[in-house]
Amino acid sequence: MMTNEELWKAVLGEMELSLTKANFTTWFKNTLILSKDGQSIVVSVPNGFIREWLQNKFNKRILDSIRGFSPEVREVRYVVGTPKIELKTTPKPFLDRDLEEKVIPDSLKDIDKYTNLNKKYSFESFVVGSNNELAHAASLAIVKNLGKLYNPLFIYGGVGLGKTHLLQSIGNKISAEYKDSHVLYISAEKLTADLIESIRNRTIEDLKNTYSKLDLLIIDDIQFIAGKERTQEVVFQIFNELHGKNKQVVLSSDRPPKAIPALEERLKSRFEGGMIADIGIPDFETRLAILKLKMLEKNQELDNETVTYIATNIQKNVRELEGALNRVIAFSQIYNKPPGTKEVKNILATYLNNPYKKASSQVVLKNIADFYNISPSDLIKRSRKKEIVRPRQMAMFLLREETKLSFPEIGQKLGGRDHSTVIHACEKIKREENNDESVKQELVMIRERVYNSFDK
Ligand code: ADP
Ligand code: MG
């Protein structure tokens, strides 16, 4: 008799042979047999999208493959979720996955280690429409008159509308045109983390010194420093120093300076002292143009009807527009033919049906695990190691705060722990949040990630 683990490994082996590596990884990464009960097998998958695909497109192939090893099996069900039961006895698939997740994604390799700039963002790859005309024009203008025209340039707008893209384009353009220039792109989140560390190491003067040498400082998502007094203090100092020397500062935020809560008045007035430009939601023409440009970049063609369907239905977020396009392209590659209208509808269903997602426990757990550089399954394990216990307590606390789960349900999600354990953890972290600045920061950072991942 094969164990579930051996059986799934054998099935995966067959799947791997019949698919391209990229497709195999896309559809079968992080899957495993959760249980086998006579004729029926339950396979756990990482998300609803993959469940749909395995169910609708791969089910027959998977079932045939399973029956090659276990002929008694009649049906396979796919469930979304973190496996609990198997973990204690067979942690192997997770070790494999852990390794895989440590591999640096391609997109990170393109990041310059001095400027933090990613070459893929350029003015050439930015589509100008009525929604971003002003922000785009202002960005070009400061490239031509660095530090002399609008200082700071403050760009604001909703998630996924191209703020980072524009900011990075400015940085890349300046770096390319002036080889000796000192440019730094940094997210306010990273800046805050750097600050905390330099305070701890007593190197804050070095840090300020480095910043004071810049010709162009770009801080992305500046709203993140709201409520963080120490960070605001240092940002204020750095800003004044650079501004006083006519060195350019560029900032982005999800809202205008006035509307950022818990931001000191003196910073608000500094941020308002240059040019403020907003980016709005792209109109249909712009969405279409963006899709066409992205297809060119990816060297992929889709028929007009499909492209129009995507542009018509995904309106509020360019990142989602691109994500939708990628899914449709993935379909074409797997089946070697473009999807029909009905299939396109299916593929995009996740975007169309959930315009506003809530934090799910999965999102919370995934972000906590990422944050602490462990795997989500570690949170569920029976481990008492300090590196695990602490994140697990954070998980309990944040599940309580960010989802509607009850104490017993949270215990259940985290490997069947008692509700009193959960209550204890929640009280402990709450106390620390109130009394310990660094814990407070830590929680802000994790929350930020959670919120960002369900905006996408
Ligand atoms: P934000 O920082 O506002 O959340 P991003 O700059 O990260 O948004 O944009 C999300 C994605 O959409 C990126 O891949 C970006 O390249 C793309 N994008 C946004 N606006 C445009 C545009 N006008 N032209 C081309 N690509 C865009
Ligand atoms: Mg951004």
From TrEMBL:
<keyword id="KW-0446">Lipid-binding</keyword>
<comment type="function">
    <text>Plays an essential role in the initiation and regulation of chromosomal replication. ATP-DnaA binds to the origin of replication (oriC) to initiate formation of the DNA replication initiation complex once per cell cycle. Binds the DnaA box (a 9 base pair repeat at the origin) and separates the double-stranded (ds)DNA. Forms a right-handed helical filament on oriC DNA; dsDNA binds to the exterior of the filament while single-stranded (ss)DNA is stabiized in the filament's interior.</text>
</comment>
<feature type="binding site">
    <location>
        <position position="162"/>
    </location>
    <ligand>
        <name>ATP</name>
    </ligand>
</feature>
<feature type="region of interest" description="Domain I, interacts with DnaA modulators">
    <location>
        <begin position="1"/>
        <end position="114"/>
    </location>
</feature>
<dbReference type="InterPro" id="IPR038454">
    <property type="entry name" value="DnaA_N_sf"/>
</dbReference>
<dbReference type="GO" id="GO:0003688">
    <property type="term" value="F:DNA replication origin binding"/>
</dbReference>
<keyword id="KW-0963">Cytoplasm</keyword>
<comment type="similarity">
    <text>Belongs to the DnaA family.</text>
</comment>
<dbReference type="Pfam" id="PF00308">
    <property type="entry name" value="Bac_DnaA"/>
</dbReference>
<dbReference type="InterPro" id="IPR010921">
    <property type="entry name" value="Trp_repressor/repl_initiator"/>
</dbReference>
<dbReference type="InterPro" id="IPR001957">
    <property type="entry name" value="Chromosome_initiator_DnaA"/>
</dbReference>
<dbReference type="InterPro" id="IPR020591">
    <property type="entry name" value="Chromosome_initiator_DnaA-like"/>
</dbReference>
<comment type="subunit">
    <text>Oligomerizes as a right-handed, spiral filament on DNA at oriC.</text>
</comment>
<dbReference type="InterPro" id="IPR003593">
    <property type="entry name" value="AAA+_ATPase"/>
</dbReference>
<feature type="binding site">
    <location>
        <position position="163"/>
    </location>
    <ligand>
        <name>ATP</name>
    </ligand>
</feature>
<dbReference type="InterPro" id="IPR018312">
    <property type="entry name" value="Chromosome_initiator_DnaA_CS"/>
</dbReference>
<dbReference type="Pfam" id="PF11638">
    <property type="entry name" value="DnaA_N"/>
</dbReference>
<feature type="binding site">
    <location>
        <position position="160"/>
    </location>
    <ligand>
        <name>ATP</name>
    </ligand>
</feature>
<dbReference type="GO" id="GO:0005737">
    <property type="term" value="C:cytoplasm"/>
</dbReference>
<feature type="binding site">
    <location>
        <position position="164"/>
    </location>
    <ligand>
        <name>ATP</name>
    </ligand>
</feature>
<keyword id="KW-0547">Nucleotide-binding</keyword>
<keyword id="KW-0238">DNA-binding</keyword>
<feature type="region of interest" description="Domain III, AAA+ region">
    <location>
        <begin position="116"/>
        <end position="332"/>
    </location>
</feature>
<dbReference type="GO" id="GO:0006270">
    <property type="term" value="P:DNA replication initiation"/>
</dbReference>
<feature type="domain" description="AAA+ ATPase">
    <location>
        <begin position="149"/>
        <end position="340"/>
    </location>
</feature>
<dbReference type="GO" id="GO:0005886">
    <property type="term" value="C:plasma membrane"/>
</dbReference>
<dbReference type="GO" id="GO:0006275">
    <property type="term" value="P:regulation of DNA replication"/>
</dbReference>
<dbReference type="Pfam" id="PF08299">
    <property type="entry name" value="Bac_DnaA_C"/>
</dbReference>
<keyword id="KW-0067">ATP-binding</keyword>
<dbReference type="InterPro" id="IPR027417">
    <property type="entry name" value="P-loop_NTPase"/>
</dbReference>
<dbReference type="InterPro" id="IPR024633">
    <property type="entry name" value="DnaA_N_dom"/>
</dbReference>
<feature type="region of interest" description="Domain IV, binds dsDNA">
    <location>
        <begin position="333"/>
        <end position="456"/>
    </location>
</feature>
<feature type="domain" description="Chromosomal replication initiator DnaA C-terminal">
    <location>
        <begin position="360"/>
        <end position="429"/>
    </location>
</feature>
<protein>
    <recommendedName>
        <fullName>Chromosomal replication initiator protein DnaA</fullName>
    </recommendedName>
</protein>
<dbReference type="GO" id="GO:0008289">
    <property type="term" value="F:lipid binding"/>
</dbReference>
<dbReference type="InterPro" id="IPR013317">
    <property type="entry name" value="DnaA_dom"/>
</dbReference>
<dbReference type="InterPro" id="IPR013159">
    <property type="entry name" value="DnaA_C"/>
</dbReference>
<keyword id="KW-0235">DNA replication</keyword>
<dbReference type="GO" id="GO:0005524">
    <property type="term" value="F:ATP binding"/>
</dbReference>
